[in-house]
Structure formats: structure tokens, C-alpha cells
Design a protein that fits this description.
This protein is mainly α. The protein has one domain: 23S rRNA-intervening sequence (de novo design (two linked rop proteins)), CATH 1.20.1440.60. Helices cover 68% and strands 0% of the residues. It is built from 4 helices and no strands.
Length: 139
């Protein structure tokens, strides 16, 4: 069992890509894009990892965990949209576009598969105030 969100491959990839997107938007986009699409893609790319983290903090509640993984997947899709816009307006070079688009496609697949694994996992019901009794505690 993963002890921290930092152990999750999807978190590690999301964080790495958010940092790369941040640096790319500040260093390689035309100045006029820094506050338009640049700002939007920085926010959406950072939201991918932030939602993984928040969901992990609620992993005890399966429905909420799945909900935040869904938000993460949606932010991943939003980031791909911003990449498309930057590319089609010729603000982002083709090699950078191809790199980031492929990485976000990969990340989206991984988040989707991780979310599906959580959905099909056995439910862990939690009722506030009730203690779960383990079989070895029974006498």
C-alpha cells in the first residue's frame, strides 16, 4: 500500500510535467502569451497533481478519492486543450508540442487506469463513530 501520494507514479509524472510547463511558458512563449494561454496552462497543469494529492488525502472515502481523480483527469484534458491552442496559434514549437502532448496523453491513460483500479477495488465502508473489528480481535 502506498504510504504517501509522493509514492504514486501519477503524482510524480504530474509534478514533473507541471514544472516543465511552468518553465516552458515563462521561457519560450511569446511575451503576450505569458498572461493569456501561458497562465491558463500553468494553472491546469498544476491542478492535475493538486487533485491527485487532495484525493489521496481522502482515500479513506472511496467516492471522494475517485471524484478527485476524475478532477485530475479533467485538468489533464484541459492542459491538452491549451497545448493545442498554443500550437495552432504558432506560439508553441512543434517539437515542444509533440513532447508535451504525448506526455499528457500518457499521464491521462495512467490516471484513468489508476482511477478504474480504485473503482473496482473492494469497498471500504466507513461509518463515523463505528470501530471496525478485525477478525483477530474477536474472541
Amino acid at each position: 500500500m502506498k504510504q504517501s501520494y509522493e509514492d504514486l507514479e501519477i503524482y510524480q509524472l504530474a509534478k514533473m510535467l507541471a514544472i516543465e510547463i511552468h518553465k516552458m511558458t515563462l521561457g519560450e512563449l511569446p511575451k503576450f502569451e505569458m498572461y493569456e494561454e501561458g497562465s491558463q496552462i500553468r494553472r491546469s497543469s498544476k491542478s492535475v497533481g493538486a487533485n491527485i494529492v487532495e484525493g489521496f488525502g481522502r482515500k479513506k472515502y472511496k467516492g471522494e478519492y475517485v471524484q478527485f481523480l476524475t478532477y485530475s483527469l479533467s485538468s489533464c484534458d484541459e492542459t491538452k486543450y491549451h497545448l493545442d491552442i498554443l500550437h495552432e496559434t504558432e506560439s508553441l514549437k512543434k517539437d515542444k508540442f509533440d513532447y508535451f502532448k504525448n506526455k499528457y496523453l500518457e499521464l491521462g491513460r495512467k490516471i484513468y487506469n489508476f482511477r478504474e483500479a480504485i473503482i473496482v477495488s473492494s469497498p471500504r465502508p466507513h461509518v463515523p463513530g463505528n470501530k471496525r473489528v478485525r477478525s483477530e480481535d474477536k474472541t
